[in-house]
Specification:
Elements (H helix, E strand, L loop, with lengths): L5 H6 L8 E2 L1 H10 L8 E8 L11 E5 L10 E4 L3 H9 L3 E3 L1 H8 L7 E4 L4 H4 L3 H4 L17 H10 L1 E5 L5 E8 L4 H17 L10 E8 L5 E3 L11
Helix pairs in contact: 3-7
Subunit structure: Part of the 50S ribosomal subunit.
Pfam family, one: Ribosomal_L1
Function: Binds directly to 23S rRNA. The L1 stalk is quite mobile in the ribosome, and is involved in E site tRNA release.
Length: 235
Amino acid sequence: MPKHGKKYRKAIEGIDLNARYEMPQGVELALKTSVAKFDETVDVALVLGVDPKYSDQMVRGAVSLPHGLGKDVRVAVFCQGEKEAEAKAAGADFVGGEDLVAKVKEGWLDFDKAIATPDMMGKVGQIGRVLGPRGLMPNAKTGTVTFDVANAVKEQKAGKVEFRVDKAGVLHAPLGKVSFGNEKILDNLKTLMETVIRLKPSAAKGTYIKSMTLATTMGPGIKVDPSTLRKHVEA
């Protein structure tokens, strides 16, 4: 068992970490147990009743959170022609075509999100092995392969969250900063959950959301009772 400091031990006093709470209370407790000096990120982990090795049980998508994520998102757009000016006007940090692809090939990766127009995907595919493992590869399913680059840039800048269930059937997603407070984190969580529930694969049988845990960067995991979600989430 890891040893925890006085602040941590005091923060969890009177809290049953094995209990499963309703969503609003879970958010409140997760924020209450934040003990770091910096503004921690609040995350949610969902264990889903799917088997991702089957393509018809993959859960993947993106959602624009109503209150964003509270951080500056550096966006790179792979495009050409008039789309370059459109991307720059929308606030993209880095814009280019083959020159930007070449830059990535040389090892440059100083961006958080990547967007590409469909006509550039042949070139962007050349750096797929670099972008893919880092979760940076543009994808039509998440709205990052599009000719509407202005809207895509604005969504990413505002805090659009992309998510994908991993091999173990677990889905992780950020919900914002502790400084947002209970109401904004709860709003973001509700919006995320509405999207995840809506994306339930028809091939998935049995319980879809098996467990749900909220935690800040340095805080303990607060369990939420999945059976109470319907009271708080509109699917």
